Amino acid sequence: MTLRGANRVVGVRWLVCLAAIGPGLPSPAADLPEALRDDAQGDHGRQTVDSLDLILSLGLNSAQARAILPLYAEACRLHQSHYRDKAEIQPQEIQAYAAFLAEDRLNRGFSPEVERSTARVHHRAKKARETFATNLNELAQGVWRILTPQQRRIAETYKPQKKAVFAAYASPKEKRNVARQAARRARRGPPAPRRDDPALAAARRELDTVRTAIHPRPDVIAKHLLTPAAAQWVYELAGVRAPRMLYEAVYCWRFGTRDYPLDRCRQDQKAIRALSKEINHWNLTNGMYFSPGQIEGLVQLAKQAEQLKAAQRQARPREKLHPDEFNARLVQLELAAESVLRPGQLEVMREYKPCLIPPKNLKNPVRVGQANDGSHLARWLQRARRTNNEHVDRMIDSLISSEIKRLGPMSESAIAERRKLLRDTARQAAGMSDVEFALNQDDLAGAITPINRKEELTAAIDQMHRIRTKPGRTHQFLLNRDFANVLMVRYQQLKSGAAE
Amino acid sequence: MSPIDRRDFLTTLGRCGAGICTLCAGGGFAVGQAAGTKRFRPEPGGRRVDFFESLPDGSIVCGVCPRHCVTDDGETGFCRSRTNVAGVYYPRGYGRPCILRVDPIEKIPLSHFRPGSKTMTVAVGGCNLRCLYCQNWQHSQTAPDKLKTFDLTPDQAVAAARDKGVDTIAFNYTDPVAFLEYAKDLAVAARKAEIRVVAATGAYIEPEPLLDFARYVDAITIGLKGFTQEFYDTVCSGRLDGVLAAIETIKTKTNCWLEIVNLIVPTYNHDPRTIHKMAGWLRRTVGVTTPLHFSRFVPMYRLTNLPRTPVETLESACRIARSVGLTYVYTSNIAPHDGNNTYCPKCGMALIERLGFKVLENRVRDGRCPACHIRLPGVWT
Ligand SMILES: [Zn+2]
Fold first, then answer.
1. What is the DSSP string of B220-247?
2. Which helix (H) or strand (E) holds B209?
3. What is the rounded radius of gyration, in angstroms, for the C-alpha atoms of chain B?
4. How far is it, in rounded angstroms, from Cα A159 to Cα B206?
5. How many C-beta neighbours within 10 Å does residue A267 have?
6. How many CA atoms lie less than 13 Å away from A205 in the CB half-sphere?
């Protein structure tokens, strides 16, 4: 934590208040609900501390604080409205996902209403999350604008600093424990240096950027500075008394609402995460058609992987395996798991993307003797053939904007290039006879299939892991306890004929 | 191309409902006015149906399929694809395919015919069966001239395949029995151009037209939809004996490469004893090396109330067929599955590994297993 100059004093004082040590010290929380003082515990507490850490790291001055204040009314409104959305959607998600999971477990296809309601509520939740993030990020632009270039740099690379926060408010006993651990580490000598892996790091950074663009998340300012919890510090810094509105928002942030208390909200979130995770495991299991023999092999390997990981976690520091050795053992297990799979299954796993509702080709592939409509791009070309140039241009604009939404941002030059490719291909398709087009539509659609940077990066990272002997997708998907549990249920079902 | 919507289809179905019901109830001749109200007018000098008999009163007895529809002037056969115009029988969809695509050959399905190759698939509307699970019902259960179609003479079709660089033409999605005249002319043209022809059919057809067509066909996949007359009555509106005769004809009187596909519909034709009987009949009639595909049913068309075929049912069907002695038994519409692959019957090597229609690995060399060198039945080049 960069508690610099005068701010350092203020920072430590606030943190001390947060930890409810030293009653009587002046505190910005003095006017706020009692419970906020032990806000330093729990998730929101951590976020509160992180907010303060960011404020202090940036070295916000009071003029800047005053400039930010007008944004808080809207930020608090967004937070409260998002909480209300969650209150409405989360229980529906649980209900829908539980019904979906029950059918997914049996692998006998989904009833239309269950699939529809799951898709609907999943989409709503995603939309609510992303709209909230987008709106908050827009608001955060107001903050970014008033930051100095140096502050912007700090913010861009900011990571919450657990250790510094701990150092500021841990009890003497906790500190003694940490000191003992540090001494032990010192006796053992410095840890093996982390191998610098610029290509991997760059790929991960880019993947993160693409993911954030596709599924907007609050940026660092939105996440840490535009929260009701941070607002109290900024009001304090600005020397302005916090308005009533803020108390309500802080109350909602800290306790939720009467109808949907925060504890229940967190329980629901946990339940949704667990359901989604299990559904994802079942989707993969269902798409793979494991035989009982394969399940036995995979469960065994997953258990070994879990044992290895647990042993590494629990081992005393000097008994821990060197990371390279640990990874090598996991890779061995991974290779063993891959040898259990048939080529078709390996292919499915290579192309598998974790999902809630399985994609059509996994759930219900085109069947022998079934005429299919072709890809959506083939249909797009079909429409483009029947219309005039002006309308084709509009179709191109809307296609590109949907691709940006789906696949991530594109540079101006990439957009221009794509527009040209689409226009040329649409023109080529229009110049074809119906018969020519029917026979060439798949090739044309293939030629205009956009680059999916997310998939490319994911595959590249997996490949780099393999080259660098780190475990990859097989480990991630198959060699864990949760997946092994799902497999064991499937094994019983196969034996009893309860599922396939 | 937009297929007719469900409502249009149901309206059409309603109009011809009486005809279908008559057939379902008692069999015999069935004449539908399926093609709707607009009177069909053939091109002057247009292609006629090859197999029919004109009666003195101007009516016609169709000779293509065992149904032998009797039609008066202006009436259309049960298949919706042939009409009596002033005592002459005309195909309604000649040169007017409603589907034209490039597909993998595995989609026919054919597992022992040039695996991994592509076909130009052609389909014309109409069908002489009424399978309740039809997955192309929008095309098969509509008169060919009521669909959006391409204008494509047989010669043009062959030229299109050539231009596309495809050396196999397939009749799939709808049954070539319903557009036999076009299919045959196209096959003749293809043969001249050294393009292979393959067909997927329910084989509810008389031996004579079948042989006339099969002379120009290189491979044929016959859908043996069930093995009881009851199944054909309830689900397909056809006769089992006609189909069995056609299979026998193909095997004994032609040089076509033959594969059999059986779609297992839960509660209708999944009974292991019947499957055993069917496998036994196939062994005796077409031999142990004719590939048999057990295909998974997926709720469709008028059987949306049923579940998908359980994997265990398909696997058990495969076990039964193998126990009877059939060598090449496959599963389709379920992937990844061992049943998608071709294994060497002698050494057990996985010769062709597939993921659905996708050939992942083809180890067959010159039609032989690379390990034990036994010759594999089929067409490999
Ligand atoms: Zn062999």
1. EEEE---SSHHHIIIIISS-HHHHHHHH
2. helix B207-214
3. 20
4. 78
5. 13
6. 8
From B85, B66, B67, select the one nearest B75 (Cα to Cα).
B85
So what's the pLDDT on residue A27? 36
CATH code at position B205: 3.20.20.70
- What pLDDT sits at residue A368? 66
Contact A37, A232 (CB under 8 A): no
In a domain, B358, yes or no: no
The reply to whether B348 falls in a domain is no
How far is residue A342's CA from residue A345's CA, in Å, rounded to a whole number?
A: 5
With b for 16 or more beta-carbon neighbours within 10 A and e for fewer, the A72-100 pattern comes to beebbebbbebbebbbebbbebbebbebb
Regarding whether B154 and B110 lie in a shared domain, the answer is: yes
CA separation for the pair B59, B31 (Å, rounded): 12
State yes or no: pLDDT of B239 exceeds 90: yes
Q: Is residue B289 part of a domain?
A: yes
> Which of A268, A331, A288, A318 shows the shortest CA–CA distance to A471?
A331
Q: Which domain holds residue B40?
A: 6-91
Question: CA A218, A222, A224, A226 torsion: positive or negative?
Answer: negative
Among the partner-chain residues A345, A368, A370, the one whose CB lies closest to the CB of B336 is A345
Best residue in A111, A350, A367, A496 for a mutation probing chain B (most B CBs within 10 Å)? A367
A130-171 pLDDT per residue, tens? 999 999 999 999 999 999 999 999 888 887 766 655 665 556
Mean pLDDT for chain B overall: 90
pLDDT at A359: 74
Say what the pLDDT of residue B28 is: 38
> Which pLDDT value is given to residue A166?
60
Q: What is the pLDDT of residue A258?
A: 92
Residue ranges covered by each domain of chain A: 3-260, 270-371+455-496, 375-451
Q: Tell me how far the alpha carbon of residue B104 lies from the centroid of ligand 1, in angstroms.
A: 25
Same domain (yes/no): B193, B313: yes
pLDDT score of B4 more than 90: no
Separation of CA A347 and ligand 1 centre (Å)? 25
Q: Do A342 and B353 touch (CB under 8 A)?
A: yes
Cα gap B361→B297, rounded to integer Å: 27
Q: Is the pLDDT of residue B30 over 60?
A: no
Query: Are B322 and B187 found together in one domain?
Result: yes
Chain B residues in contact with A446 by the CB 8 A cut-off are: none
The answer to whether residues B122 and B70 belong to one domain is no
Q: Are residues B122 and B74 in the same domain?
A: no
Percent of chain B past pLDDT 90, that is, above it, reads: 82
Specify the number of domains making up chain B. Answer: 2
With 90 as the cut, is the pLDDT of residue B322 above it?
yes
**Helix (H) or strand (E) run with residue A444 in it:** helix A434-447
Same domain, B198 and B284: yes
Of the candidates A205, A58, A79, the residue with the CA atom closest to the CA atom of residue A146: A58
> Residue B379: CB partners within 8 Å, gap ≥ 6?
B112, B113, B114, B218, B219, B257
In this structure, the answer to whether residues B123 and B268 fall within a common structural domain is yes
Contact A343 B355 (CB under 8 A): yes
Residue range B122-162, pLDDT digits in tens: 999 999 999 999 989 999 999 999 999 999 999 999 999 99
Q: What is the largest CA-CA distance in chain A?
A: 85
Tokens 């109409």 — which residue?
B126
Q: Which residues of chain A have pLDDT under 50?
A: 1-42
- Percent of chain B clearing pLDDT 70 (strictly above): 90
Question: Does residue B303 lie within any of the structural domains?
Answer: yes
What CA–CA distance (Å, rounded) separates A76 from A64?
19
Taking only the tens place, the pLDDT of each residue in B154-183 is 999 999 999 999 999 999 999 999 999 999
The span from the CA of B183 to the CA of B177, in Å, is 8
Helix ranges, B47-149 (H)? 137-140
Test A434 with B136 for CB contact under 8 angstroms: no
